[in-house]
Design brief:
The protein is an alpha+beta fold. It has four domains: 143 residues, no CATH class; 80 residues, no CATH class; 38 residues; 62 residues, no CATH class. Helices cover 42% and strands 12% of the residues. It has 16 helices and nine strands. It has a seven-stranded mixed sheet with strand order 1-7-5-6-4-3-2. The longest helix has 17 residues.
């Protein structure tokens, strides 16, 4: 990797600045690609964005930035995209600071910004070297998400098309599924979720196999199908539905005949059940019937001690055949009448069993 340090004014960098959300972002007379395919979207909040401009106006130094130099004399921003976009957007009049846009400034104030010199390393190497360097220099910055790092390795026509659906603020996926999917589109969390659902968690394998596909239509159609299935199956929306593994549930149950009315009645009852601690797990439970998703209320230490003392440390056994004495640490609390049969987590419904007997009973 060949590296040399350059001082370049903001005036020169902003010259020819063009921001096209679909085609990309360029500047420096068209020679600088500010948003290569492996780069993240603009993630600075207003405070960080404004801080960049204040740093420049006060003449303080910005952190050094890195450009990859291509064989044809063009450049790609490897590190410093957020800072570069901040001052390009300001000079382009896209936001104000303290109600002052760039065009509101006095000429000497404008020139002070435009003549500000940035320190930029030009780096030249093969694609593998550039991508490795990109990972290294980003360690000290805003940490890349796992999906942002995957995007570095699997750039191509498929990824470019997928990002139109899943990776922009107010993108189609966000508009469709923000009630059901957690995370930020611009941090690639919607894209990561969609691929994970479709590939059963084998994200890198899927991206590798489809890297050169002409479009991401298959993934987008699948994602829409998942969301439609949720809305048809669970017709009453509750906030607990956000962030569940809907793709996995869709994959397993999309072909099952489900009664939405019966599901809603059961969900409503479970929502009001004090024994159920994980309300979001109700949706997985009504489909899988696995009680682990409910995180059912457990007996407190005080309840365990009360029952242990009343039994005098004697384990009755799961078939009333044990009769041995144990220390309390060697015993576990058990519901005499299980939750699914209407049993409550109260002292009257508790017995202390030795660990072996409790395992035997649980294994029935």
């Amino acid at each position: 990797m060949e590296i040399d340090l350059q001082q370049i004014t903001i005036r020169d960098i902003c010259n020819g600045y063009v921001n096209d959300n679909e085609e990309g972002v360029t500047a420096f007379e068209g020679k600088l690609n500010i948003r290569p395919k492996y780069q993240r979207e603009f993630v600075y909040n207003d405070e960080k964005r404004d801080a960049v401009i204040e740093t420049i106006r006060k003449g303080y130094p910005l952190n050094v930035m890195y450009w990859a130099k291509n064989d044809d004399g063009t450049f790609e921003v490897m590190d410093g995209q957020q800072r570069t976009l901040s001052f390009c957007l300001y000079v382009d009049g896209k936001f104000s600071i303290n109600y002052q846009y760039f065009h509101n400034l006095e000429e000497d104030e404008k020139n002070q910004i435009l003549n500000y010199e940035t320190f930029i390393y030009h780096c030249k190497g093969n694609p593998k070297e550039k991508l490795e360097w990109f990972k290294i220099i980003n360690i000290a910055g805003v940490k890349l998400s796992n999906q942002e790092l995957r995007n570095v390795s699997y750039t191509g026509t498929w990824l470019s098309d997928a990002k139109k659906f899943f990776s922009k603020n107010s993108c189609p996926a966000y508009n469709l599924a923000s009630n059901y999917v957690k995370g930020s589109p611009i941090r690639q969390e919607y894209l990561e979720t969609a691929i994970s659902w479709f590939s059963s968690g084998e994200i890198e394998k899927y991206m590798s196999e489809h890297q050169k596909d002409p479009n991401a239509n298959e993934l987008w159609v699948y994602f829409q199908a998942v969301i439609s299935w949720i809305k048809v199956t669970f017709r009453t929306y509750r906030r607990e539905m956000k962030g569940l593994p809907w793709g996995d549930l869709y994959n397993d149950f999309k072909d099952k005949k489900l009664d939405s009315d019966k599901l809603e009645t059961e969900i409503k009852d479970l929502m009001m059940d004090d024994e159920v601690k994980s309300k979001s797990g109700i949706y997985q439970y009504v489909l899988t019937r696995n009680e682990k998703y409910l995180n059912l209320r457990a007996f407190s230490d005080q309840q365990k001690r009360q029952v242990y003392e009343s039994q005098k440390g004697i384990c009755p056994g799961w078939k009333r055949t044990c009769g041995k004495h144990f220390e309390i640490e060697e015993m576990e609390a058990d519901h005499i009448k299980p939750w699914r049969a209407g049993g409550k987590t109260i002292v009257e419904n508790c017995q202390m069993l030795c660990k072996d007997d409790n395992r035997r009973k649980s294994g029935i």
